[in-house]
Amino acid sequence: MVHEVKKQDLATIVEKFGQRYSKLLGINLERGDDEEVFKWFLAAVLFGAPITETSVVKTYKCFEKHAVLTPEKIIKTGWQGLVEILDEGSYTRYDYKTADKLLEVMGNLKTKYRGSLKLLHEKATDSLDLEKRLKELGKGIGDITVSIFLRELRSVWSKADPKPTPLVILAAKNLRIIRSESPEKAKKELVEFWEKNRVKGMSFVNFETALLRLGKDIRRRKSY
Prior knowledge:
Helix content is about 65%, strand content about 0%. By secondary structure, it is an all-alpha fold. The chain has two domains: about 5-20 and about 165-224, no CATH class; about 25-150, Hypothetical protein, domain 2 (Endonuclease III, domain 1). α1 (about 5-15) packs across α12 (about 205-224) and α3 (about 35-45) packs across α4 (about 55-65). The longest helix is centred in the C-terminal third of the chain and has 20 residues, at about 205-224.
């Protein structure tokens, strides 16, 4: 069933569902510190799999508990150690694949950018090149992970301007906020809608995050 969002209801939706995932995890992206950006990148990789928000938060907290929050620490922990952390966080369905992915990505990040995502951003010529460089870190870094990661860096990195994920588009169409399913056109429509219907004290990132959570709920209900 499709519901058209009313302007007076938008604030409720954004305030209820729009908390940034980085804030939920206690990651401070405001100053763009490399260490904090990397923590968010690790979280974005975890969020990139079709797994529940609760499981991702629990798994990230396990990485935090074991102080495995840098490229160097991830590499040093090794495949077996990563699998154990992932299993501890109930990330069992994707544990082997994610351990492989993390080691490949961290190795490339160290080799190409001295382990610095800030350097990766500086070397990118524009938003598209930034996304390309992130994907080239490893075959497990795709459009969804890149979109999740860059979404919360919109106001921090000048070249962070990702397209919305399929779940964001699903929710926006369900609310009749947008018409297009094309990520590029959907992004434009979402920005235009937000510019006309801003919620005081909230940002476009909060709006997009709220749509993501709504999209997950729609997908879950459709699967039953």
